[in-house]
């Protein structure tokens, strides 16, 4: 925007128009809304329905201004949120026009006819746009004295969103967000005239992963959170900026807290990443930090039972046990994928200096050697300046998602893909087994004129993605050849032999750029920190003598002190421990049920001579740990995450003075007890040292070059298993969130009608999915997908695929139709049978 003296005559730049607002001549881009031009000048026009990320609606009429065109005033004030700038336009806002001011006061008076003056109990009181604008732009007295209308309240729009209908001013922010941004048109305007209200259709709950955003953008407190309602007042709260710890999106958030507890979370404003949105998991799943089973004191196993101990005793016991295990057979380190960069770096340094091993792997999920070579060659060291960013996704002519379910695995990436598709800029393609809700909402955009197809699903049998990627349909292939196209690959690719290799070959063939998007928040940073068996901090190869010497010098240890042999991956560590080849384990918040073989993990934990667990809450690891060291949740420590772009997301401590220690401090003190110095007493110290090390400036390691595997061929009574984790599932960080759990998607098995017909599935029957290890019984949902394929959620309800089946994406399973048990026995979700047993 340019502001210039009226007397200065000059040509209008191309693509701009010149107009006057409140006597000031300005230049603005063609097509810009009047309200946007005014706010960039510092002129605030009151509004309720307007939102910069939503399409204009003109619903509330609060933003009326006086407009002249060609010297002729328009007959009545106009809504500045729907009118675009024009050359020669003269605009007068409420600051200079009595007409606009009177019109705005009249609209406010009408809005307050029925709006209840319940500010003392309204959750929005103290931060309410209606409250603020009524005081600033409203009249001192109302001419309406009639009794205000009332409704029964609250109406549960979902288990976590409650509606007070009498407060609603029908601004349509919530309905527009749901339809335009999230693609979940479950919430709509119902009835007509004076009876018009927000609601949901019968048997259509507001089951959206993003419903909490409607609470935050509601300008009048009509939509409130079931978890926060009546809990506190805005002026009771202390607000601290933070970063979401749930996935690799890297969302900016705001923690509001009082009395030592986080009370609510709101989306922060970061135009480069999450704009003003977060998913419901990031918004509501924070009470795990105050769960009743949180461990706050160190525990030592004595006579087979864990007892509380002092930090000094626990650290000395852990140091003694680990030293003995290290000298006996060695110790493996499993940090998990939820750590901050600083904590992951501490695990990496602890493994190399205190335990003298490269047996460390953060990948607490299905993984492979091929994936490790892919991370070494195509991911480590990538930054927003050198790799793919959110902006690149938005501007890409085409995006192909391979073994990646964006709505479940990285919700903000899903919103960005949907935004790009909705703007008509991007064709979004998915290579996968079925049209999930996330696939549908990024490939078919519903406008007022009807649905518009902006992409498509390339159907593929699980396990055959590499072969399918090699022979893509011509439309997809040509789209990927356009400059700026992106190939997005998810962590599920590790379960498909040859897929990572084929991704790199496809990128070389088409010129598309590659983006790797893991599911957990700490995975990207753990790579840079060296929490892998083949990489030192900064992406330096373990096998490179010069790289080891560089790290030895930085760490101040003697030449040759670092182990030179490449370490074992997570499965190798567990197998070696189960076989007695490794004597000890250090585990950092790993859930065995997340691992590809939970039975192997439990066998290793039982067989290990000494196990140290650093964790927040009791888990399956706690049952086998010799020493348990409690650590701080993200709200009680500072640090940083790297999101999938490689963008650093720093945050400071929200809740001070709890006494909880970050992993880096615990490991530093434990190392001192083992006569080693890590110098990671604080996250700041760990971050500073990692920054000094810097990225590896040497050549990248070569990428994998494995042959493309074909999909397995099922025999009679068999199917190929497709599976991924849903956003809301059995995850431990969603503990004590019943309202959030109420919006999780149903736990069902999905298969094609022809597959259901083949197993003679009756209308009232369920499906039993079985392997030699056990079975899962679930209700069925039919969908368009390849035949002889069955999809199960990885860890939702009773569908615990790794635990019950010992199988993964692309595995062969047996399927049969079965008569359902009673609802009381199945809890309405299904049953799980382990070790081949039947209920």
Automatic annotation (TrEMBL):
Residues 818-839 are annotated as: Disordered. This is NADH-quinone oxidoreductase. Its EC number is 7.1.1.-. PANTHER family: NADH-QUINONE OXIDOREDUCTASE SUBUNIT G, RESPIRATORY NITRATE REDUCTASE. It catalyses: a quinone + NADH + 5 H(+)(in) = a quinol + NAD(+) + 4 H(+)(out). It is an enzyme of class 7 (translocase). GO terms for molecular function: 2 iron, 2 sulfur cluster binding; 4 iron, 4 sulfur cluster binding; metal ion binding; molybdopterin cofactor binding; NADH dehydrogenase (ubiquinone) activity; NADH dehydrogenase activity; quinone binding. Residues 237-293 form the 4Fe-4S Mo/W bis-MGD-type domain. Residues 99-138 form the 4Fe-4S His(Cys)3-ligated-type domain. The keyword Magnesium does not apply. NDH-1 shuttles electrons from NADH, via FMN and iron-sulfur (Fe-S) centers, to quinones in the respiratory chain. Couples the redox reaction to proton translocation (for every two electrons transferred, four hydrogen ions are translocated across the cytoplasmic membrane), and thus conserves the redox energy in a proton gradient. Belongs to the complex I 75 kDa subunit family. Residues 818-830 have a biased composition (Polar residues).
């Amino acid at each position: 925007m340019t502001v210039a003296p009226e007397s200065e005559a000059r040509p209008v730049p191309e693509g701009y128009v010149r107009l006057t607002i409140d006597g000031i001549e300005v230049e603005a881009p063609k097509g810009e809304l009047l309200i946007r031009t005014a706010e960039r000048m510092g002129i605030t026009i009151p509004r309720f329905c307007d939102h910069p990320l939503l399409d204009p609606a003109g619903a509330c009429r609060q933003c009326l201004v006086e407009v002249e065109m060609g010297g002729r005033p328009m007959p009545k004030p106009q809504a500045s949120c729907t009118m675009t700038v024009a050359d020669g336009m003269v605009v007068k806002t409420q600051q200079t026009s009595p007409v606009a001011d009177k019109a705005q006061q009249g609209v406010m008076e009408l809005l307050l006819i029925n709006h209840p003056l319940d500010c003392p109990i309204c959750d929005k009181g103290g931060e309410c746009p209606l409250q603020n604008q009524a005081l600033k732009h409203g009249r001192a007295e109302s001419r309406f004295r009639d009794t205000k209308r009332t409704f029964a309240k609250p109406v549960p729009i979902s288990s976590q969103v409650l509606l007070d209908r009498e407060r609603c001013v029908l601004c349509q922010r919530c309905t527009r967000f749901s339809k335009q941004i999230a693609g979940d048109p479950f919430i709509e305007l119902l009835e007509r005239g004076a009876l018009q209200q927000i609601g949901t259709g019968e048997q259509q709950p507001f089951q959206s992963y993003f419903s909490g955003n409607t609470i935050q953008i509601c300008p009048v407190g009509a939509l409130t959170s079931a978890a926060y309602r009546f809990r506190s007042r805005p002026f009771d709260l202390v607000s601290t900026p933070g970063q979401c710890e749930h996935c690799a999106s890297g969302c900016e958030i705001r923690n509001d807290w009082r009395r030592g507890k986080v009370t609510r979370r709101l989306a922060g404003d970061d135009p480069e990443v999450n704009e003003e949105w977060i998913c419901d998991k990031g918004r509501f799943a924070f009470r795990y930090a105050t769960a009743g089973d949180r461990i706050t004191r160190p525990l030592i196993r004595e006579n087979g039972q864990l007892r509380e101990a002092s930090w000094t005793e626990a650290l000395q016991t852990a140091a003694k046990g680990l030293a003995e295990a290290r000298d006996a057979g060695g110790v493996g380190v499993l940090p998990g994928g939820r750590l901050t960069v600083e904590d992951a770096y501490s695990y990496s340094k602890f493994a190399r200096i205190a335990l003298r091993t490269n047996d460390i792997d953060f990948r607490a999920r299905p993984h492979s050697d091929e994936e490790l070579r892919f991370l070494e060659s195509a991911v480590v060291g990538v930054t927003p300046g050198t790799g793919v960013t959110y902006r690149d996704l938005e501007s890409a002519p085409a995006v192909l998602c391979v073994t990646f379910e964006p709505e479940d695995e990285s919700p903000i990436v899903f919103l960005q893909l949907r935004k790009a598709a909705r703007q008509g800029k991007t064709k979004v393609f998915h290579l996968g087994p079925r049209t999930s809700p996330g696939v549908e909402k990024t490939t078919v955009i519903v406008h007022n004129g009807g649905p518009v197809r902006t992409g498509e699903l390339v159907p593929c049998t699980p396990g055959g993605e590499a072969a399918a990627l090699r022979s893509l349909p011509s439309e997809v292939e040509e789209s990927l050849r356009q400059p700026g196209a992106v190939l997005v690959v998810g962590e599920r690719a590790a379960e498909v032999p040859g897929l990572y290799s084929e991704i790199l070959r496809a990128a070389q063939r088409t010129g598309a750029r590659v983006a790797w998007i893991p599911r957990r928040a700490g995975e990207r940073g753990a790579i840079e920190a060296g929490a892998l068996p083949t990489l030192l901090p900064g992406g330096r190869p373990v096998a490179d003598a010069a790289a080891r010497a560089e790290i030895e010098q930085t760490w101040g240890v003697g030449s040759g002190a670092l182990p030179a042999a490449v370490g074992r991956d997570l499965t190798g560590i567990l197998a070696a421990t189960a076989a007695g080849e490794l004597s000890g384990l250090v585990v950092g918040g790993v859930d065995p049920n997340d691992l590809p073989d939970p039975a192997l993990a439990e066998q290793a934990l039982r067989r290990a001579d000494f196990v140290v667990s650093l964790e927040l809450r009791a888990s399956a690891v706690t049952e086998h740990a010799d020493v348990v060291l409690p650590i701080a949740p993200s709200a009680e420590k500072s640090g940083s995450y790297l999101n999938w772009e490689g963008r650093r997301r720093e945050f400071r401590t929200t809740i001070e003075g709890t006494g909880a220690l970050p992993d880096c401090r615990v490991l530093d003190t434990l190392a001192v007890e083992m006569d080693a110095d890590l110098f990671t007493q604080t996250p700041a110290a760990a971050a500073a040292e990692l920054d000094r090390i810097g990225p590896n400036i040497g050549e990248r390691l070569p990428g994998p070059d494995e042959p493309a595997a074909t999909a397995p061929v099922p025999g009679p009574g068999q199917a190929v298993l497709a599976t991924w984790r849903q956003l809301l599932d059995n995850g431990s960080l969603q503990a004590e969130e019943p309202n959030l759990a109420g919006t999780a998607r149903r736990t069902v098995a999905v298969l094609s009608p022809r597959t259901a017909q083949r197993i003679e599935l009756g209308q009232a029957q369920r499906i039993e999915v079985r392997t030699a290890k056990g079975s899962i019984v679930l209700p069925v949902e039919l969908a368009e997908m390849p035949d002889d394929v069955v999809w199960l959620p990885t860890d939702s309800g009773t569908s615990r695929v790794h635990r019950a089946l010992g199988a993964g994406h692309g595995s062969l399973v047996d399927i049969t139709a079965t008569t359902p048990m009673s609802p009381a026995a199945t809890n309405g979700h299904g049953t799980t049978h382990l070790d081949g047993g039947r209920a």
